[in-house]
Design brief:
With about 375 residues, the chain is of the alpha/beta class. The chain contains twelve helices and 14 strands. α1 packs across α2, α5 runs parallel beside α6 and α7 runs parallel beside α9. The chain is globular and about 70 Å long. It starts with a strand and ends with a helix. Bound molecules: S-adenosyl-L-homocysteine. The site of S-adenosyl-L-homocysteine (SAH) has 17 residues, from β10 and β12. S-adenosyl-L-homocysteine (SAH) binds next to β10 and β12.
């Protein structure tokens, strides 16, 4: 069977060449072709020796997950649906803004965490994505955005501007990556880690650690592993100021309660490329959005340098939750700001194509049967 090079980071690719008696620097060349230039045809990797190209053609391949849909929202947000086999699909979202372009990447087909307000969580879990499927999302998006940039220029892109996703000013269209799509990245650590390394690798996507953000529901021991093995910017889904409420909304809180989670955040900051943790907080009307909740939150995070990102709840059918009203969100934000906590409210983007946070549903055949069990409970 051929080796899919999309799944190999620099170290693994070096090993691939060494095993075949080839020079290690080939790995750098191939990384550049595959990731920077989006090339999947070895015959076109012109600076490789003929023998190396022939070996690659015989033993390797570059195969991203097939793209099955590509939608653009009124606000420019773009969503791709990728087929990951056996009736499962995952979603990737590109969010263009004036000063940056953010790609939101999925790490699992479905999710086991079952957060009550999350559409992905409601559909159960199928499997972990492979490294090739995770980095494949960046590969596709970079290529697609590069094609668009070239089209806008209406002349063929000069070779220097072939850098993936290059825009007119030579800037990368994708300046930031967030692991905030479907799934819990820290429960797929072994496949996420090489994908992170590729994102950071100068020969691949060359993103700075500060511009790659991993968002976790709060898997405490894995937060430590990330800190030790590949610290990037960290976002933690908090969503409640006390254990009782958090356990209701985010069931894994039973296993890793707030005290342990916040201690892990403090440990993370010792190695983090950013000097704060981003706490995500979904605003659910009448559930976690009162003045008392804001006050409790301020106390809870008193000794963790942090910023808050309030996410107005994005509705999906039969969620059973409502979004907090704009003035309630404003008031909540003001309470945090008054306590000296930097706080932003996420603008809802791409909701006309169901690309907003928590709406990513892909299409997942649930193997956990949890979704069915929940349904059975609901109708009892
Ligand atoms: N498993 C990771 C990534 C999940 S998605 C994590 O839990 O952090 C990224 C963010 O969107 C999380 O904070 C998640 O709680 C939030 N989210 C999920 N459903 C949402 C919804 N319907 N509306 C708004 N935010 C939601």
């Amino acid at each position: 069977m051929k080796v899919n090079l999309l799944g190999l980071d620099a170290g693994a690719l070096g090993g691939f060449f060494a095993d075949r008696g080839q020079k290690a620097f080939r790995a750098r060349q191939v990384l550049r072709w595959v990731h920077r230039f989006g090339e999947s045809d070895f015959a076109r990797m012109t600076d490789l020796a003929k023998g190396a190209r022939e070996m690659l053609a015989a033993e390797a391949e570059v195969v991203p997950p097939p793209m099955i849909a590509d939608n653009v929202a009124a606000d420019g947000t773009r969503k791709w649906l990728l087929d990951v086999g056996h009736g499962n699909a995952v979603e990737t979202v590109f969010i263009p803004e004036a000063s940056r372009g953010t790609l939101c990447v999925s790490t699992q087909a479905g999710c086991t965490m079952a957060c009550q307000f999350c559409s992905t969580g409601r559909q159960g879990f199928n499997r972990n994505l492979t490294t090739a499927e995770i980095i494949g999302q960046l590969w596709w998006a970079s290529r697609a955005l590069q094609a668009r940039a070239a089209q806008e220029q209406s002349t063929p892109a000069p070779s220097a501007a072939r850098a993936l996703g290059a825009t007119r000013g030579g800037e990368r269209a994708i300046s930031n990556v967030v692991l905030m799509g479907m799934g819990e990245p820290l429960l797929n650590f072994d496949n996420v880690l090489p994908a992170l390394r590729l994102m950071l690798d100068d020969h691949a996507y060359g993103l700075s650690r500060r511009r790659v953000t991993l968002s976790t529901v709060g898997i405490v021991p894995m937060i430590d592993r990330l800190r030790d093995e590949c610290p990037v910017a960290l976002a933690v889904s908090l969503h409640a100021p006390d254990d009782a409420l958090r356990s209701r909304l985010v069931p894994v809180n039973e296993k890793y309660p707030l005290r342990e989670l916040l201690a892990a955040c403090r440990r993370y900051l010792e190695r983090s490329p950013r000097d704060f943790i981003t706490f995500e907080y979904v605003m659910l009307a009448g559930v976690n959005d009162s003045d008392a909740h804001a006050r409790a939150l301020v106390e809870l995070v008193a000794d963790v340098p942090c910023k808050f990102n309030l996410i107005p709840f994005n509705p999906f059918s039969q969620s059973g939750f409502r979004r907090s009203a704009p003035d309630v969100i404003r008031r909540f934000a003001e309470r945090l700001l008054a306590a000296g906590i930097v706080c932003t409210t996420r603008r809802t983007r791409g909701d006309d194509i169901d690309a907003a946070c928590g709406q990513l549903a892909g299409r997942v055949q649930d193997r956990t049967r949890r979704a069915g069990a929940r349904l059975a409970r609901a109708v009892q």
